[in-house]
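Annotated sample (chain length 120).
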Amino acid sequence: MKKIILTLFFSILLSLGITACKPSEPAADIIVFTQTGCPHCEHAMAYINNMLKKQMPTITVAEYNILASQENKDLFKKYVRQFNITGSSIGTPLIIVRGTALIGWEKSIQEKIIKVLEQK
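Output written by the structure step:
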């Protein structure tokens, strides 16, 4: 009986330890994957930080430069798989707005960001 209890106890501890080591999901209204030297990424972040945050000061933004760390690159790959982004569509900026993936940067993306933020 003691073996069963000890095994159960260590199993619980092990599972808690593994859970605590998992990377946490970004908690932001807008998640932006960028890379150094990408002019579209720079324009997207400038718009979000300088224009959008003035219009909607309570929104939260998380930027991940995929060239800065393996963790950022892995998180980027996770979202690419999650949203089934394939082929030439894979790139930066990848903007996730409250669960909606937007790829690239152009005027229509700005409008889509605002539309999604206003819906929820």
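Annotation: The beta strands are 30-34, 61-65, 94-97, 100-103.
Annotation: Confidence is low (pLDDT under 50) at residues 5-23.
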